[in-house]
């Protein structure tokens, strides 16, 4: 899948030196660092669960660790300390769901969480951030994005190759996991807006990336639409942040 081109209605010149911007940057920098840390651990666990793909998952884990270090450098360049404790809370439920599924040997939820949901969250966030990023962070983010598309493609390929046997499990896992992804987007939305990111584009990017991934692996447009119904904005659990 190639990067999605979108038109973003954002302030092209955020005040990088303002207190409000740096506070928001610290929290979101924490989120991307923690997200890459989660991905690192998830891929190592997937390497154990799918040993025939151990090399691919191990390579993906190494990439995620490099991403983490690169985003840590972005924070230092900005003179901001990443708020890792807050970020851990943002990912807590997704982390617990992956750990629980892994403990029970449930491959499909684990692969769905990391190879589709987490990668689509990352791609959506990074694409929405690029137009308003400072020069240093933009260069880092552009490099990281290329790797994230590669990881998403790997997940899509595996699900496509095994679609007939895992379809029902994907639908079931989606029902439980997709609202958690929505909660993550809600949690970061305030700081994303303070940094000049367009919130409508952020959510739209995730929805499009994830929907296209599901269609690519074999679901019909109608099935994807039905699976997305768990994101009903009237649901108080989905809107909780």
- Can you tell me the number of structural domains? 1
How much helicity do the residues have?
over 70%
- What portion of the residues fall into strands of 2 or more residues? under 5%
**Strand pairing plus helix content: what structural class?**
mainly alpha
Q: Any idea what the shape is? A: globular
Note the total helix count: 9
Taken in chain order, the helices and strands follow as HHHHHHHHH
* CATH architecture verdict: Up-down Bundle
Q: Would you count the extended β strands for me?
A: 0
Low-pLDDT runs of 5+ residues are 1-11, 233-241
The overall pLDDT average reads 89
What is the CATH fold-level name?
Answer: Ferritin
Radius of gyration: 17 Å
Note the main sheet. Answer: none
**First CA to last CA: what distance?**
31 Å
Name the CATH homologous superfamily. Answer: Ferritin, core subunit, four-helix bundle
CATH class value: Mainly Alpha
Ordered list of secondary-structure elements with their pairings:
Layout lengths: L18 H31 L4 H25 L5 H20 L3 H23 L5 H27 L1 H32 L4 H19 L3 H7 L8 H4 L2
Helix pairs in contact: 1-2, 1-3, 1-4, 1-6, 2-5, 3-4, 3-6, 4-5, 4-6, 4-7, 5-6, 5-7, 6-7
Polypeptide structure, described:
- There is one protein chain.
- With 241 residues, the chain is an all-alpha fold.
- The protein has one domain (19-239): Up-down Bundle (Ferritin).
- 78% of the residues lie in helices and 0% in strands.
- It has helices spanning 19-49, 54-78, 84-103, 107-129, 135-161, 163-194, 199-217, 221-227, 236-239.
- Helix 3 (84-103) runs antiparallel to helix 6 (163-194), helix 4 (107-129) runs antiparallel to helix 7 (199-217) and helix 5 packs antiparallel against helix 6 (163-194).
- The longest helix is centred in the C-terminal third of the chain and has 32 residues, at 163-194.
